[in-house]
Amino acid sequence: MAGEFDLIARYFSWPAHSDSVNLSVGDDAALLDISPNHQLTVSVDTLVPGVHFPVDTSPYDIGHKALSVNVSDIAAMGGEPRWFTLALTLPTYDTAWLEGFSAGLRAAAESYGVDLIGGDTTRGPQTISIQIMGETPVSQALRRSAGQMGDILYTTATTGDAAAGLAIYLEQLSELSAPQQYCLDRLNRPTARVAESRVIRDYANACIDVSDGLLQDLSHILKVSDCGATIYTDQIKFSPALKPLYNHQQCLSFALTGGDDYELLFSVPQVKSKAFEQAMQQSGYTYQAIGKLTANSGLIRDRQGNPLTATGFQHF
Ligand code: ADP
Ligand code: MG
Q1: 72 CA distance to ligand 2 middle (Å)
Q2: 119 C-alpha vs ligand 1 centroid, how far in Å?
Q3: Residue 309: what pLDDT?
């Protein structure tokens, strides 16, 4: 049996975990209960082959990544990811692709505890759009505009691995070393920092997820928070995988301008920074202080005052 409804039933209908889902895939629309004292938090992201992932990325990784990059936006708001819809455009009914994609999507959905509650399926050039819905405790959302002069800038974990992964992929090597494979995995299977975000939202002012490059994403915070920033380029740490692969300058360039890491970049008031760092350490989450917010200039500088330019990824 083939056809649109068979495809949906086979690959995109699985039982909802959450009691909040009254009605899921199969009716004209889904019905959801929202928790009291929470705000519905909504975002959508589209993945296009060759733009958002290399064309030969495994269908499993595509499914996993499509959901992760969306969940990352909810984490960047300090929200809890809850539900998602999937708008899928495919050129053919390719069962091998659908099986891999659906398995990756479902594994990611289970790891983040989110339910697939509907979607749309059409024929055409491949695109994958996911709309994510989450809930944020009222007045706790982490807005880009809430940065304050003097705040310490942090990222979760390290940045630069995914950009290195793309460079490694483009070399088309016949064999990859363990650190090279690690970087490629960071590109193909990013982790949305949902757990970290639960700690961060209790301390941070502004927050954004790093999808287009640290400096470029930072510049979005600076613009709407009316601040400048100093970045401690001399003390930024790289992952143990990235460090041996490139020289310091190349690592720094990946870390500051490379996209696709999906780490959180956020600002914490200086008076709260000690308590914040203790809370992160207690939970076993890695983070690093990478600089601070300064007086309004819109500019990003290093400690010596040299301007750092934000040339991350832009579609147009
Ligand atoms: P309608 O014609 O009323 O818009 P559709 O035929 O598009 O309904 O979809 C039928 C049901 O299947 C709906 O509940 C819709 O949300 C769901 N659905 C369609 N495509 C997908 C998909 N790719 N993933 C999950 N659910 C889907
Ligand atoms: Mg429809």
Answers
A1: 26
A2: 5
A3: 82
